[in-house]
Design a protein that fits this description.
The protein has about 450 residues and is α+β, with helices and mostly antiparallel strands. It is built from 6 helices and 26 strands. The protein has 2 domains: about 65-160 and about 180-265, no CATH class; about 280-435, no CATH class.
Length: about 450
């Protein structure tokens, strides 16, 4: 009788432990751009059963890290091998930087928040402990993620001090763990894996789900498609943001084992209205190029690797090579002019210009060299076997095609630009080029 009773008790305890050992299921879905993604397990119930409480003294097992799904990426991952313990903050001539051993990873600038942001970036690496780091973005990192031996980086859950004051990992009945947040993140946004997709919004390529706009890639469609595929391949369900959300120092993907917070109704519409990166609205054209909102008070000259740049947060406005004085003079010029938008047309012409509250500036800075032109005489025509925008027969801009040239002319006429200005880097190349309306 005693033997049968002991066996029955053991069976109850082992059965309870086995139920508690089931890891959470992360939806792993095939990537389908521009459409909601179907769950990998369509037959599974939409509302999982609530977990049963563990008996007193039983340690909650750590959830298993989700493995990569069979999702083909549009482009190969460029992985940087690193050790999290080698990542450190350095003070350099141009401000604060984050280094991995002898390699610079990121410059955070030289403003009041630069040191804090640099140290927060280091905290992210120390918390995620990746062995490989990947960045996505055509001209600068828009989103990043870590892999640990080929698997997605998981943020460690923070013990709840009310239920686990010693941080032992024991989960009493009714207790729990705090949110899984990589240490340096100021903002964390959940990702709905079932609806994560690529979508064009106001002339820019974005990655979004049904609840939030997650990333804005501007004109970089390939980067947006790669990011959506990466999210589904690795099951990334959180975005961490270091620095101000409007101009983050770093945005990164990771896996959290916590339940996501409830989505706010109407959040997407509010996010669309507050986008800081959109296309340039042009009558008769629609959206073209890219327009980025900037805060002129935060424009600065800083070192980026081995060259000086003028930047507004992560947005580089112009490159000045080794010429520090020219970069600092250009930064002061942009600050004094109080420009609020920086626009890039891209293409062969690669024209850039500033706006002030959506309108063309009406005066060129004294320090800017430039040339005036007559809008009424602009034509698109071949010159020496190449397409160009000409003024009175003289080449003004080289363009890649007749259609690109027509777009350039429409942009110039839409804003009434009639002067080309250039904050130089001491030579014909580099610096910041922009347009002015004088008449």
């Amino acid at each position: 009788m005693r033997k049968r009773l002991a066996a029955a008790v053991a069976g109850v305890v082992l059965g309870a432990h086995g139920a508690g050992a089931q890891p959470p299921q992360f939806p792993q879905s095939p990537f389908q751009p521009l459409a909601p993604v179907a769950p990998a397990f369509p037959g599974s119930p939409s509302q999982p059963k609530p977990p049963q409480p563990l008996p007193p003294g039983v340690v909650a097992p750590k959830p298993a890290t989700p493995g990569p799904a069979e999702v083909a990426l549009p482009h190969a991952e460029i992985k940087l091998a690193l050790h999290a313990q080698d990542v450190a903050v350095k003070r350099v001539a141009g401000g604060w930087e984050v280094w991995a051993g002898a390699r610079p990873l990121r410059a955070t600038g030289n403003n009041n928040d630069s040191e804090t942001n640099a140290r927060d970036v280091v905290r992210v690496f120390r918390d995620l402990r990746p062995t490989e780091w990947v960045t996505i973005g055509a001209t600068k990192p828009v989103v990043e993620y870590g892999l640990t031996n080929g698997r997605p980086a998981v943020a460690a859950a923070t013990p709840d001090p009310k239920t686990d004051p010693k941080g032992t990992g024991v989960t009493p009945a009714g207790g729990g763990f705090g949110p899984a947040i990589a240490g340096g993140a100021k903002v964390v946004q959940p990702i709905d894996l079932k609806t994560a997709r690529v979508e064009a919004i106001r002339g820019t390529w974005t990655v979004r789900d049904d609840n939030n706009i997650l990333f804005n890639f501007g004109l970089d469609k390939a980067g947006a498609e790669q990011t959506a595929a990466v999210i589904h391949k690795y099951g990334f369900n959180r975005v961490g943001v270091v620095g101000a959300p409007q101009q983050p120092v770093m945005s990164y993907l990771y896996v959290s084992t916590d339940a996501p917070p409830r989505a706010l109704p109407g959040a997407v519409n509010a996010q669309i209205d507050s986008l800081t990166r959109t296309g340039i609205p042009i009558p008769g054209v629609g959206y073209t190029g890219e327009m980025v909102k900037i805060d002129p008070r935060k424009v600065e000259a800083r070192k980026d690797g081995f060259e000086w740049v003028v930047a507004a947060g992560p947005e580089v406005l112009g490159r000045f090579g080794p010429t520090e004085w020219a970069a600092r003079e250009a930064a002061r010029t942009v600050q004094d002019a109080k420009y609020t938008e920086f626009c890039k047309l891209g293409g062969t012409a690669n024209l850039t210009f500033f706006l002030r509250d959506g309108k063309a500036p009406t005066r060129a800075p004294i320090s800017a060299q430039g040339r005036t032109f007559d809008l009424t005489t602009l034509k698109v025509q071949p010159v020496n076997g190449k397409w160009a925008v000409t003024e009175g027969g003289r080449q003004l801009f080289e363009v890649g095609s007749a259609s690109e040239g027509e777009t350039v002319v429409r942009v110039l006429k839409a804003y009434g630009f009639d002067q080309l200005a250039h904050l130089t880097a001491g030579g014909p190349k580099g610096g910041v080029m922009f347009m002015v309306k004088n008449r």
